[in-house]
Structure formats: structure tokens, C-alpha cells
Amino acid sequence: MGRKPRVEYAGALYHVIQRGNNREYIFDKDEDKTFLLKDIKDRKVGTGFKLYGYVIMDNHYHLVLQVEDEPLSKLMHLINSSYGRYYNREHNRTGHVYDGRYKVIPIQNERYLMAVLRYVHRNPVRAGICSQVNKYSWSSDEYYRNNRGNFIDIDLLLGMLSNDREKAIKQYISFMEQEDTIDYEQMDVIGDRSFMITINPPKKEPVKKSLDEILVDTGVCPADFTLIKNGSRKRNLVPYKVAYAEEAVKQKYTFKSIGENINVSATAISKLLNGVE
């Protein structure tokens, strides 16, 4: 049976893992890691995806990203094909560079996003390459610690920690020193299944219009708009007032605020909605 396609949508957040064929070292030289990073930077400029984190190990890499119009599958194909050609050329070899299709785990909330970033940045620590996250050169950790947002989109995650950037960075550093909470074994199982992502696009909260905008949307003319705002009780204005009040209630405004905006009481709004003049 063939692999099920991954369902993707614009704005989705993903944790991507790509390993070398047979887990062989395919990024064992600094030049190799530099090539991959440069290619990712170039793709980012060309396609506009957001990159929240990465780490490049000797035999695999991790990306934490958010796609826009360019599907993840196309983006990963471009990145992996480019590096595959480079690696085979530089090492005078042919054949597969990667161990099958990349693994991808959907990130469904902000709390998990922070945990994934820590998992990614602590990869070298878990592997015994270094004792601290900031001792490894080939990850996005330095961008967060040094408040550098030119390549890595640091604002979202640091903003989750604090609106004060200095405090946010301190909290980030403290968070990176804590042990991971992600179930790594389950993560590998999900990836090996070549699973189908079936997340629904996040629902956008409707924009709440101002009360004046709601009143204008009733179709009232400028002169009558002014009369209504001044509390006029002319009979011909009633349909506009009713339409205004009904829509304002739908948008969760209180009777008091609806009335104050047109210079009448909350009780008057209640009567208006109940057909009492």
C-alpha cells in the first residue's frame, strides 16, 4: 500500500526531522552544514516561510517552521534535493543521501511549540556533544540569546515569555536549561508511520467592529447618522437603530455601551429590541 499524502494548509506549524541514509554522517564537515543553512536562508527569502528554530547534527537535522503559501512538501523537496546534489558532487558519490521521507510532527499549540524548540536546541546536549545548549554552534539558540531576528523569527516565542525582551531572553535561557518533556519514542513512532496530518486550519476570530462602524453599515445617510448619534427620536430612524442594536448585540456589546454610543439608555435599547417604542 502506498503512503498516505500529508494534508497541509497555509499557516501550519511543523517540527521536521530529516536523517541521513542508514543514519550515516552527511553533515560531518562545517562546509556541509554551512551549505544547508545557506540554502534554507535562500529558500526563506524566496518563499516567505517562518523559521522558529533548527539544529544540524552530523547525521540529521531538525527544523521548526511555519509554512505560508508554499506547501511543506514542496519546500522540503527543494531543500533536500539541493543538498543531495551538493553532497553527492562534493563526495564523488551517487545514490540516496537521506533515509527516506522526512518525518513531520504538527505543532498544535504554543505550549508544545516551546517544548519542541527546547527539544531541538538540546539535541547536542542529549547526544553528549556538549554540556550546555549555547556551546553548540549549529543551532538557532544563539539567535534567541542574542536577540537576533534577521534569519530566525524569534519574536513569537520570546513574546510568549514576556513583553519585556530582556526578561524574555532570561526566561528563554532558563527554559533551555530544563529537562525535555517530549516523548521522543512516540515522536519517532509517529514519524515512521508516514502519518497523515489532519489538523484543521485555526479558526480566525471575527474582527469586532466599532459601534460607529456598525451604525454606518445599516446604510444610514450621514445626516441621519448624526441625528441618531445625538439621540434623536424621529420615527424614520427607528429601523436603523434596530438594525444597529441587533448587530451590536451579536458582536457582544452590552446594552449600556450600545445606548451610550447613540445617547440613549440601556433600557431604551432593550425596548427597541423588543419592539417597544
TrEMBL record:
<dbReference type="GO" id="GO:0004803">
    <property type="term" value="F:transposase activity"/>
</dbReference>
<dbReference type="InterPro" id="IPR002686">
    <property type="entry name" value="Transposase_17"/>
</dbReference>
<dbReference type="InterPro" id="IPR036515">
    <property type="entry name" value="Transposase_17_sf"/>
</dbReference>
<dbReference type="GO" id="GO:0003677">
    <property type="term" value="F:DNA binding"/>
</dbReference>
<protein>
    <submittedName>
        <fullName>REP element-mobilizing transposase RayT</fullName>
    </submittedName>
</protein>
<dbReference type="Pfam" id="PF01797">
    <property type="entry name" value="Y1_Tnp"/>
</dbReference>
<feature type="domain" description="Transposase IS200-like">
    <location>
        <begin position="9"/>
        <end position="123"/>
    </location>
</feature>
<dbReference type="GO" id="GO:0006313">
    <property type="term" value="P:DNA transposition"/>
</dbReference>
